[in-house]
Design brief:
Distance between the termini: 18 Å
Order of helices and strands: HHHHHHHH
Helix content: 55-70%
Largest sheet: none
Strand content: under 5%
Length: 197
């Protein structure tokens, strides 16, 4: 089982990553329909329609919830979904990285503040790379894909580091479920299936 840093640093890394990146993405959010598949995806989210193959059913259902927000117009609200999913995924990546640091560099990082800073930096670099940032401020399915990638990395870390067979089984089943959900968003999840022990 992983030993964890004091909870203030652990929770702080996740919250700071999420709030900072959500603020940045909302500040740079596209105000309306953009290029690529934006118009088609916004219409699908607004009316629970079916966009082009493979249909993105999970993204459509989750983005539809954002159309209920009480501000902005439909396009802005659906764009907001991408910003939220991307910031959430980056926060999960910060969490996973925090655990990796604790596991791997436990003797080197005696100061938990360093773990906090490195984890937040990892999240920021993840969500502000040019392609990730571009897809996080428009109506696209890749913000949700960032979320699932972060969740899969976190669950894989917890699964690999767990010593109890019962807990490992639980993480494995949860990881399998999340991989299936992620496939209902985008098929590039298949890249994450390869694992060597």
């Amino acid at each position: 089982m992983l030993k964890r840093y004091p909870s203030v640093f652990f929770i702080g890394a996740i919250l700071v990553s999420f709030v900072a990146l959500l603020t940045l993405h909302v500040y740079t959010l596209a105000p309306t329909v953009t290029f690529e598949d934006s118009g088609e995806l916004i219409a699908a989210a607004a009316h629970l329609g079916i966009p082009h193959q493979p249909g993105y059913p999970l993204w459509t259902l989750l983005s539809h919830l954002f159309t209920w927000l009480p501000f902005g117009h439909i396009a802005y609200r659906v764009n907001m979904a991408s910003a939220f999913f991307s910031a959430s995924g980056a926060a999960l990546i910060a969490w996973a990285f925090f655990l990796w640091l604790r596991l791997t560099y436990i003797d080197i990082l005696k100061n938990p503040l360093l773990g906090f800073l490195f984890s937040v930096l990892t999240a920021v670099l993840t969500a502000t790379s040019s392609e990730a940032w571009e897809q996080s401020v428009i109506a696209e399915v890749y913000g949700l894909h960032i979320f699932f990638t972060g969740l899969i990395l976190l669950l894989t870390t917890l699964w690999l580091c767990e010593t109890s067979n019962n807990e490992r089984s639980r993480y494995f089943y949860l990881l399998s479920f999340v991989l299936g959900l992620s496939l209902s968003n985008h098929t590039t999840t298949l890249v994450l299936f390869h694992y060597r022990s």
